[in-house]
Amino acid sequence: MAGATNPPGGDLRLIETYLDALAAERALADNTVAAYRRDLRRLAGDLGGDLAAATAPALRAHLRALRRRGIAPRSVARALAAIRGLYAFLVEQGVRDDNPALHLISPRAGRPLPQVLRPQEVEALLRAPDVRTPLGLRDRALIELLYATGLRVSELTGLERSQLRLEQGFLIAFGKGSKERLIPVGENAEAWLRRWLEEARPRLARGRHDRVFVNHRGAPLSRQGVWKIVRRHALAAGIRRLSPHVLRHSFASHLLEHGADLRAVQMMLGHADVSTTQIYTHIHQARLKSLYERFHPRA
């Protein structure tokens, strides 16, 4: 790497001086410091040495080169953060009067696709609670309802019996900004919800409030309680790192896979903009592509 062996003003020493100061100031993880080191050494190699004298056009050319090499947008964005930090440090230390990285534009990182359960994983998760116990019955009804309706955790924990219209097969949800929407409740979810409401909830809640889901003391179930319930049963079903929101993702993705209208799914999810819902069509497309590549003889 050119310039790496120049004594006091050499690039390697300059990089290490900056990283030492950064680590001390921001208490960065070792992995982050190591990634910044790689990014800045790669920059020094592309520039041919003398990092301190780099120009804005040279830095832009370096970022373009990273993209042409197929480096992931997130990695390019991290490299840009390292570069910006280095030149801000040089200005602060009086090594430079200007910051050539000041107006560099970060590449847009591709939006990661949400995690979605496979149908067999959903079935395993639903079978995990022991429905012979009151809390197991609650957990089965809770998971069934999350998957059947795509409710947010906050909507689930705030759900009251007065919002249920099980005779008509739907419920009323109050989403962000207290916006009201109607969501169908499938037959399976309705059946388990009725069992919970009739067989177990009265013994726990004892008429103290109207919330649908309660904890073991009969108080309204908290958001943290829902997370613990879902994660515990996910582990029992052999599913790692599952959050309640994944059931919302799965609800939307599975509906679209089976031909549901995008606008209808948008309304059920309570999305203000259909573009937010469209991420689930990308999941379906990614799955189709994966199946094609696995099974088509000329893929």
Descriptive overview:
The chain has 299 residues and is mainly alpha-helical. The protein has 2 domains: 11-92, DNA polymerase, domain 1 (Orthogonal Bundle); 119-295, Intergrase catalytic core (hpI Integrase, Chain A). It has 13 helices and 3 strands, in the order H-H-H-H-H-H-H-E-E-E-H-H-H-H-H-H. It has helices at 11-26, 30-47, 56-68, 73-92, 119-127, 134-149, 153-157, 187-205, 223-236, 244-257, 262-269, 274-277, 279-295; strands at residues 164-165, 170-174, 180-184. The protein has a 3-stranded antiparallel β-sheet with strand order 1-2-3. The chain starts with 10 loop residues before the first helix and ends with a helix.
Structural class of the secondary structure composition? mainly alpha
First-last Cα distance? 41 Å
Shape: elongated
Q: Could you tell me the strand content as a percent range?
A: under 5%
Estimated radius of gyration: 27 Å
CATH superfamily of the largest domain: Intergrase catalytic core
Number of DSSP strands?
A: 3
Characteristics:
299 residues; mainly alpha; DNA polymerase, domain 1; hpI Integrase, Chain A; disordered N terminus
Q: Care to give the gist of this entry?
A:
With 299 residues, the protein is mainly alpha-helical. It contains 13 helices and three strands.
